[in-house]
Amino acid sequence: MNAAAPAPTPTTRALAWCLHLLVTGLLALAAGRAVTGGRPHAGWIVAASALCALVYAAGPALPGVRRSRRAATLWLTAVAACWLVLLAFTPDAVWVAFPLYFLQPHLLSRRAAPAAVAATAVAAVAGFAVHQHSFSPAMAIGPVLGAAVAVAVVRGYQALYRESEHRRRLIEELTATRADLAAAQHTAGVLAERDRLAREIHDTLAQGLSSIQLLLRAAERALPQAPQNAARHVDQARQAAVDNLAEARRFVAALTPPTLEGTTLAGAVERLCTTASARHRITARFHLDGTPAPLTTEHEVALLRIAQSALGNTVRHAEATTAEVTLSYLGDHIALDVVDDGCGFDLVSLPAPDPETGGFGLTAMRARTHALGGTLRIESVPGHGTLLAARLPFTPPSDTEPEARP
Question: CA 133, CA 266: separation in Å to the nearest integer?
């Protein structure tokens, strides 16, 4: 591929046609002046002009001239040879040197082009001097200046073309980068929304369905001997289903949980403890420490969901009789502590989350605290209960620190 020749564009094609017309016009001028002026060797001049025009016309028609520098060099050599023959018969051929000045830097290598232009200029000056039978410095001014201007124009055009190509590549890279960034942002948004829905489903629907299941089992056990207790458990299960239906509708619409509407976070957590105590065989007590301060909706939802998940785990797995839930406002951060007197568990041998058996609660709680720049600490020993402590700063930092792992 001829690296010196830029790819054809509307502008370059227009310039090429102008150059073709210039060569054709100058050759026609030389042949016409020979015929009309009655110059000697007029027939040879016309024949040389026609031959030069034919050889020149073969260049644009041959695709190899545009693709190969070697083919372009051979073609220019043939055109120059025809031009020298014409120059030997008439001084009017001197003018054809000017379009050759433009072609040579455009098609030849940077090392060969100056030599070719210089040789063409020397040949033009020498041929004109021979026909005039004399030489003067004025004869060299025109061809030399023409060569210098042609080389400067071609070099400038090539520099502008390289700059425009560089900018075109940069624009293409920028466009591709923006497309990749948009795709990455879309994927990140999808994953974030999927993660949000997963946490909300676990902390609301899954916990609620588990509570309904426990209540219905209690009703089943109480049904033969104590129908009144069974009816109470069924009524509580029905109320739990109503509450979870409202939760499902709210988190799908990304709204505030109903338990936080018209109340504070402390009130919502206290009501959660009261509901857990009423529905299950556990005494959940709420404690408030410090002066309540305004919180963002994200903080309130995160702490409420952590409390729901922690109490749900206590009811289902801990076999505890009491649970102490403490909400503390401590200067620049807020803390939620859930302590039970259950059977505890081994932190090292926790099973991996499984769609059948669950185990997503701790992962969801860690994700909530980490998203707000907080920490989650869990302490548990088999047979000695469990402590869960969540800490959230009032203002999440831009770059959150890694949270504490149990």
Answer: 113
CA-closest candidate to residue 311, choices 336, 348, 347: 336
Nearest to 95, CA basis, from 48, 146, 43, 134: 146
CA 56 to chain centre: 50
State the residue for tokens 């959150």: 400
pTM exceeding the 0.90 threshold for the entire prediction = no
Supply 36's token pair. Answer: 């009309």
Rounded CA separation 181/237 (Å): 48
Q: Regarding beta strands 386-393 and 375-380, do their DSSP bridges make them parallel or antiparallel, or are they unpaired? A: antiparallel
In whole angstroms, what is the distance from residue 361 CA to residue 273 CA?
Answer: 18
Q: How many residues does the chain have?
A: 406
Contact residues for 366 (Cβ-Cβ < 8 A; gap 6+): 376, 403
**Residue 293, SS3 per DSSP:** coil
User: In which band, very low, low, confident or very high, does the pLDDT at 403 lie, cut at 50, 70 and 90?
Assistant: very low
By the 8 A CB rule, do 340 and 302 touch? no
Name the residue among 290, 336, 296, 343 with its Cα closest to residue 315: 343
CA-based nearest residue to 276, from 242, 244, 240: 240
pLDDT tens-digit map of 226-250: 777 778 778 877 777 877 777 776 6
Q: Which residue has the higher pLDDT, 404 or 93?
A: 93
